[in-house]
Specification:
Helices cover 35% and strands 20% of the residues. The protein has 2 domains: 14-49 and 132-310, Multidrug-efflux Transporter 1 Regulator Bmrr, Chain A (Alpha-Beta Barrel); 57-125, no CATH class. It is elongated, with a radius of gyration of 20 Å. The chain has helices at 4-11, 32-45, 57-71, 75-87, 93-104, 110-125, 169-181, 249-264, and strands spanning 147-152, 155-161, 190-194, 204-210, 220-222, 225-233, 236-244, 270-272, 277-280, 292-301. Strands 1, 2, 3, 4, 5, 6, 7, 8, 9 and 10 form a 10-stranded antiparallel beta sheet that branches. Helix 5 (93-104) packs antiparallel against helix 6 (110-125).
Length: 310
């Protein structure tokens, strides 16, 4: 039987508003001051952007999956109907692959198959909810579990060093005080870069708050805090995947492997151009099912202009 939360999701046509204020790594449970500050900060920014109705092929496929779960009388009946839904997901190759794998998995009983389809429907319908504006000219967030190529304009950020994936408190406070001093509005996402020599994604090198425009404030070191530097980044291309939940090192490493596999399959059209990074969109109090982040690898285009991995 369809779970109540899935029923509510199926009825909610415009409830998935674009979401985040975010802090990138999951905070330690002991960091109460950080949590309290972030909570107050999020409330100050909690002026949701207008709800957007979902009419994308992904949302249509999600509705079809939920109808199947509700009305199919057997696991075999569910499987028989899945290829037609997969055909509507041509622009979402990883979602399409998930549907086809479920259609081919004869070992799943009805209950297990229903759970997998409900989870997939949630991913297909998910839209981040932005609590703060993105920088001027930024591309839209990537779909959940899909690899896309994103083009970023030039942008300005305030950056401070980090020592490990869990050490967010001090860098966050340094950046927060910086934007307070200079009356810089908070934006989403928050950018965290990782040590290129660490395949496990446990060693972070920097955290950054992004400026809404490059006209705000001067570039260079913050005279009040030598740890913070304002930097202008050039326009760049990234290969990006969207994800729900917490950006744990294990999850980031898993998604990094997906991006690297995609890059290896492109036949030399792209080359790596920078360290792994995450773009986090949610404050710590946002529950796991609503949390959104992206994992990205900067790349250089050698030839061709694909937008979505095939």
């Amino acid at each position: 039987m369809l779970a109540p939360r899935i029923r509510a999701l199926a009825r909610c046509e415009g409830c998935a508003v674009i979401s985040p204020l975010h802090v990138v790594a999951r905070p330690r449970r002991s960091s109460r001051p950080f949590g309290h500050l972030a909570a107050g900060f999020a409330l100050a920014l909690a002026m949701p952007l207008a709800a957007q109705h979902q009419a994308s092929p992904r949302a249509v496929a999600a509705d079809a999956l939920l109808r199947l779960v509700e009305h199919a009388d057997s696991a075999a009946g569910l499987r028989d109907s899945l290829p037609s839904i997969a055909a509507d997901l041509g622009a979402s190759p990883r979602a399409r692959a998930r549907v086809l794998l479920l259609a081919a998995d004869a070992w799943l009983d009805r209950d297990a198959l229903e759970r997998r389809l409900e989870e997939l429907a949630e991913d297909l319908r998910f839209t981040p909810y932005l609590q703060a504006p993105m920088p001027e000219g930024f591309p839209s967030p990537a779909p959940i579990d899909e690899v896309v190529v994103k083009e970023y304009p030039e942008y300005r950020l305030a950056r401070t060093p980090m020592r490990s994936a869990g050490a967010t408190g001090t860098p966050f406070f340094a950046l927060f005080r910086h934007i307070q001093r200079h009356e810089i509005p908070m934006t989403a996402p928050v950018q965290v870069e990782f040590d290129a020599a660490d395949p496990r994604a446990r060693r972070t090198t920097s955290m950054a708050f992004l400026y809404e425009t490059r006209e705000l404030g001067p570039a260079g070191p913050d005279a009040a805090d030598e740890r913070v530097e304002v930097v202008d980044l050039p326009a760049m291309t990234t290969v990006t995947i969207g994800a729900r939940g917490y950006d744990s090192p294990a999850r980031i490493a898993e998604l990094r492997a997906v991006l690297e596999a995609w890059l290896a399959a492109q036949g030399g059209r792209y080359a790596p151009a920078g360290p792994l990074r995450t773009m986090g969109y949610n404050s710590p109090m946002v529950p796991a099912p609503r949390r959104f982040f992206e994992v990205e690898l900067p790349i250089t285009r050698v030839e061709g202009e694909p937008v979505v991995a095939k």
